[in-house]
Amino acid sequence: MDQAGIVCYGCFAGVFMPRGFWQFSPCPACKGTDTFCTCCGGRNCIATPREDIDVDELARYWQTVIKRALRDGTSLPAPIAAFDLMAAGEIDRQTDSE
Known about the structure:
By secondary structure, the protein is an alpha+beta fold. It is about 30% helix and about 15% strand. It folds into 2 domains: about 5-50, no CATH class; about 55-90.
């Protein structure tokens, strides 16, 4: 899959978004000077989502990836498989307010 496997700066969870939806910014904690920085892991920069992300564009991208994976018999990462089931209406989207 063409995803960067980037770790979110805010929650440190892995996110599945293609490279084009991300931008790299200087590390706000160490400004690129600390090899042992807990924020950037010594990489001197952090990945943040672009501010102009079109959610519909992102959904269309993942539908293309899902179709290709299913056609090729490739397994999908769990979050993307859940997205596929949500899109098909087989599971309900859970919200934090519940």
